[in-house]
Amino acid sequence: MALCLSVLMLNAKTVETTLWEGVYAGEIELNAATIASFKAGDILRVYVTVPENGANFKIVYKGAPDWSETTIPSIDNQWPWVNGGETYKEFVLTEADLTAFAGKNIYIYEGNNSTIGKVSLITEEKEMKETTLWKGEYSGEIELNAETVASFKAGDILRVYVTVPENGANFKIVYKGAPDWSETTIPSIDNQWPWVNGGETYKEFVLTEADLTAFAGKNIYIYKGDNSTITKVSLLSEDQGCTTGLGEVQGDKVKSTKVIENGVLYIKYKGTMYNVQGQMIK
Question: Is the pLDDT of residue 68 over 80?
Fold first, then answer.
């Protein structure tokens, strides 16, 4: 019988993230690091004020080696028109767009009769499942071993539930393993001591391919700070129905229980223990 995880479902929703907002000062730049997070199907929205008879604005991308202004493929016009009465113009990004401006910056300019107030990205957050990797009484360190880490995928979200005082506090997260077991910074986090503001109940990190490559075969370790208390660590991943381990799609959901033994995540179903790949252990 295939093992099927019991998980917490999180609803899908549309999210608008502000990329720029303020007083226009000659140009608006969306740098390469920001653009790298864009996905095909995301919507780039430019909020613009125009007169009754309409007006246009300019949008291009450019970068090394020649920094020439280049038209975004799906827009096919460096000066898109905004009709009177419209408050924004939006563009659905394609794979061709992402390929074209990889490593480049996007630049947006006001026209003679247009005023830009904000630029945002509209994304659709897919339904996610949350799987608890560790929960309990903190006793010196939290270890996510290499077997558990091997189930992670790019785009998964590692979430650390942490209690901090009103003025905030930090905690430590690193990976290490053979041969030297040195504490190493996770690439996408770029800080071994991430800060949690007062009022926040968790900190989360979107895992990248670079992260997976870096800690392949290693363990992740999480430590509380002087003024922080860690209560749970979980993984949010895109829902694909019911899964065997953390992978194959199965049909109907079956009740199961997650168990941590010596820092290792197992799934218990009808008295039998399975690892996260769905293999029977005991």
Answer: yes
CATH number for domain 127-274, candidates 2.60.120, 1.10.287, 2.60.98, 3.40.630: 2.60.120
pLDDT at position 251 over 70:
no
Domain with CATH 2.60.120 in the chain: 13-125, 127-274
Report helix, strand and coil shares of the chain as percent, to nearest 5. Answer: 5, 45, 50
Provide the H-helix boundaries in 134-208: 146-149
- As a whole number of angstroms, the distance between CA 160 and CA 202 comes to 5
Please list the residues that pair with 135 across neighbouring strands.
232
Per cent of the chain over pLDDT 70 is 79
Q: What is the pLDDT of residues 110-136, one digit of tens each?
A: 999 999 999 999 987 667 788 999 998
Q: What are phi and psi for residue 43, nearest 5 degrees?
A: -115, 120
Between the alpha carbon of residue 71 and those of residues 25, 60, 79, 271, the distances in Å are 22, 5, 9, 61
Domain range 13-125, CATH class? mainly beta
Q: What is the DSSP string of 185-200?
A: --TTT--SS-EE-TT-
